[in-house]
Amino acid sequence: MNKVPFGPTYDEMLHPETISPDVRATALKQLHDNEMDPINLFNINWKDADNKVRKIVLPPELTGVDANIVVMLGCGFPSGSHKVGPAYSTLIEGLVDGEISAEHTILGPSTGNFGIGTAYISKLLGLKAVVIMPDNMSKERYERIRRYGGELELTPGSESDVILTLERTHEMMKNPKNKALAQFELMANYRFHRHVTGGSAIEAVKGVGNGRIAGFTSAPGSAGTLAAGDQIKVAFPEAKVAALEPYECSTLANGGLGQHRIEGIGDKMCTLIHNVLTTDFIILIKDEETVQGVKVFHDGTDLLLKMGIDPALAKILTYAVGPSGICNIIGAIKLAKHMRFGPGDNVVTIATDGFDRYDSVLEELNARYLELTENVLSRWTQDIFIQADEQHIYDVRRPAAKQRLFRQKESDWLKFGYTQAYLDSMQDQAFWEAEYAKVAPYNHKILAQRGE
Length: 452
What we know:
With 452 residues, this protein is α/β, with parallel strands linked by helices. It folds into 2 domains: 55-79 and 191-395, Rossmann fold, CATH 3.40.50.1100; 84-182, 3-Layer(aba) Sandwich (Rossmann fold), CATH 3.40.50.1100. The chain has helices at residues 10-14, 21-33, 60-63, 84-96, 113-124, 139-147, 162-172, 187-204, 228-235, 251-254, 287-299, 301-306, 311-317, 323-338, 359-369, 374-386, 399-413, 420-425, 429-436, 439-449, and strands at residues 55-58, 68-73, 105-109, 128-134, 151-155, 178-180, 215-218, 240-246, 281-285, 346-351, 393-395. The strands form 2 sheets. A 7-stranded mixed beta sheet has the order 1-2-10-7-8-9-11, with helices on both faces. The protein is globular, with a radius of gyration of 20 Å.
């Protein structure tokens, strides 16, 4: 494999404290000193230098609910987003299986963060990457992909037109020198989030409230992050999992299609790796509110302090939450209200990335509103968070609702060569357990490649 370096196992990504102390210490140092050192592969995890899950707990003063909204922070991952995890997992599985080598060009269909992760991991592993993404995303995303050495293959449209990136990817895959990290359809994405994100979520609530997870919310782009809900339900069977969609593109909720501006989610499909069996609710979030929420967190520190928000938390909010994170937080609040969760209950959600790739998004918001006084930000805080309503919440626990989602998945994926029998097998939880069980053999394969 031409000296392609190898990184952590799935277990080491869940429990980085089990990594060799020398490797762990060097990796943590290089995360800040040299992001392009391959040892940063060992920083692909949810934990800080003290081996605590990176998270914040939003108080009732901000959320308007008594339940704890626990937000896991993805901005601490190398490349600034947790999407680097499934990019690494997909690549490393291909390498240990011998399906990918240093001679291949890696294709990464994405609307942003997974593409950034693909370019970054490919650079660290000495591989060439081409990221296929819509041509109307934030300029910061394109710049970061190029900074990591990735090439861009742009398709028409925006977030809602990700299907075009898949079509372009499948066309480019006809060249045997190209290997695709198709996040929407490869089970390494599912395995990473079920094992690493799900296991980390369970750790994140230790010492918070009653120490259990009552709800988990995530807005699917690839739907990989939703796989954390499968593991959460193993530990806490009563937990409710909600998938969040843009109000403007309500594909899972009712087959609706449309343009929206929440980068990273709402891709007009039921992805192949979405286990709809464990999704209890679908909640729609208005795209404008997610950008307004970023404005409140980034520029509304004085307002938040007046509301009684802890100064340390207010500081974190200025940089640690992007639009999809705001979407997830709003969804968590709505789920807490809908389920009447009370004091001691915990709703866990994810901030996929931080503010560092959304300056242009706020510039556009500022241009549209012209005058954004503290009074305006206060009104937005009330409307978006504290007074979030229970509208547009769809209960999909009944068999008829599950079948509708399975039909959506068939509509989306039969045309890409998957068989009806394969799609039907996904209607049994045993399919998903079998996919998850592959974590253990991949752990052994990665260790073997490392000579351990």
